[in-house]
């Protein structure tokens, strides 16, 4: 028999108060860290320091996250013989931790204080290199520990960003099937469905959630983003969770500059257009209803993008990277015209 072997986190814990029992969770999964290093940011450090486990370990607070600082951290991890990296924060902090894990072969545990994208479990990091942000293949965390109470206390815009990043998998899944059908691109349906199913299930059942701070909503969102990261690891590609909507987001990044708008808000906003172009009529309508319920930005004013910047982004999006999507089925001027009528 021929089998496909895949890596996934040893620890996946999503519940309220889990950080109060951090060491217990680690030990229950047959792990023991003698000399871990906590990597965090200033704000996320203030959150993590409330918990007992954080007082027992050495900390490093990320300043600018540039290559020089990352190189210093890599040397520090080796020189002080740290045996684990516990990366606590948002996507930027977690991405640095995952990259350092790859560079040093030291395992990393992801402890998000924000649930803004699937970086919490993905094998990809976005790093600041020579004043540009680049995507780099990295190591998947051996553990992902999400405390729902911590996420509930985070700003709403970051939870919305996580929602947008997960929902964008519906667009990405369609694009992968399209590329398989039109140009014969290899497809891994297991990884595709692993990313797609949590997104479509949330979309089909969003009426059950009372608000963005609903504990069940945060739990489902967290598991969805974790599975999205695992799907990318299985596929050895971001394909399960990145299609035309990410092309538009990358184009906006080039025009507006990185981090101007949270990534998840951009891709979730772009999904309004891409699901329409894809002819996913029911999903498109449901996404608008979901966004209305949770006050996700649906207009240019709400997302903070001017019309000319969006038009420019739509013109370059099909060529922003070598990935066949629904954008390749339309002339750019046609996409711009549809967007002008669809997005106010």
Structural features, described:
The chain has 344 residues and is of the alpha/beta class. It has 2 domains: 11-152, Rossmann fold (3-Layer(aba) Sandwich), CATH 3.40.50.1970; 156-342, Dehydroquinate synthase-like - alpha domain (Dehydroquinate synthase-like, alpha domain). It is 53% helix and 12% strand. A 6-stranded parallel sheet has the order 1-8-5-4-2-3, sandwiched between helices.
List the helices and strands and how they pair.
Layout (H helix, E strand, L loop, with lengths): L10 E5 L6 H7 L7 E5 L1 H7 L3 H4 L2 E4 L5 H13 L4 E6 L1 H14 L3 E5 L11 E6 L2 E6 L5 E5 H5 L3 H28 L5 H16 L10 H21 L8 H13 L6 H15 L3 H14 L5 H4 L3 H10 L15 H11 L2
Parallel strand pairs: 1-8, 2-3, 2-4, 4-5, 5-8
Antiparallel strand pairs: 6-7
Helix pairs in contact: 4-5, 7-8, 7-9, 7-11, 8-9, 10-11, 10-14, 11-12, 14-15
The gist of it:
With 344 residues, the chain is of the alpha/beta class.
CATH topology of the largest domain: Dehydroquinate synthase-like, alpha domain
| CATH superfamily annotation of the largest domain | Dehydroquinate synthase-like - alpha domain
In the sheet with the most strands, the strands line up as: 1-8-5-4-2-3
CATH architecture of the largest domain: Up-down Bundle
Report low-confidence residues grouped into runs of 5 or more. none
> SSE order, as H and E?
EHEHHEHEHEEEEHHHHHHHHHH
**Rg measurement, Å:** 20 Å
> Overall mean pLDDT score?
94
Helix content: 40-55%
At the first level of CATH, the class of the largest domain is: Mainly Alpha
Shape: globular
């Amino acid at each position: 028999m021929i089998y496909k072997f895949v890596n996934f986190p040893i620890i996946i814990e999503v519940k309220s108060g889990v950080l109060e029992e951090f060491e217990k969770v680690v030990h229950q999964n047959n792990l023991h860290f003698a000399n871990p290093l906590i990597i965090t940011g200033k704000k996320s450090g203030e959150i993590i320091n409330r918990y007992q486990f954080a007082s027992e370990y050495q900390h490093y607070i990320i300043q600018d996250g540039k290559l020089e600082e990352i190189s210093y951290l890599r040397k520090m991890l080796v020189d002080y013989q740290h045996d684990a990296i516990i990366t606590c924060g948002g996507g930027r902090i977690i991405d640095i931790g995952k990259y350092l894990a790859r560079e040093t072969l030291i395992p990393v545990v992801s402890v998000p204080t924000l649930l803004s994208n699937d970086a919490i479990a993905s094998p990809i990091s976005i790093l600041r290199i020579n004043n540009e942000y680049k995507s780099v293949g990295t190591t998947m965390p051996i553990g992902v520990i999400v405390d729902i109470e911590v996420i509930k206390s985070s700003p709403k815009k970051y939870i919305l960003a996580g929602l947008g990043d997960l929902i964008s998998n519906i667009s990405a899944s369609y694009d992968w099937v399209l590329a398989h059908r039109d140009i014969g691109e290899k497809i891994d349906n297991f990884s595709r469905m692993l990313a797609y199913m949590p997104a479509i299930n949330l979309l089909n059942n969003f009426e059950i959630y009372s608000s963005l701070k609903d504990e069940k909503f945060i739990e489902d969102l967290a598991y969805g983003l974790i599975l999205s990261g695992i799907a990318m690891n299985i596929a050895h590609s971001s394909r399960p969770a990145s299609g035309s909507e990410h092309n538009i987001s990358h184009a906006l990044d080039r025009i507006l500059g990185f981090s101007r708008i949270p990534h998840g808000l951009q891709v979730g906003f772009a999904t309004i257009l891409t699901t329409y172009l894809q002819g996913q009529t029911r999903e498109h309508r449901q996404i608008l209803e979901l966004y209305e319920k949770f006050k996700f930005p649906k207009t240019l004013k709400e997302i903070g993008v001017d019309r000319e910047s969006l038009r420019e982004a739509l013109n370059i999006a099909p060529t922003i990277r070598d990935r066949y999507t629904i954008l390749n089925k339309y002339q750019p001027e046609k996409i711009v015209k549809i967007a002008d009528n669809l997005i106010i």
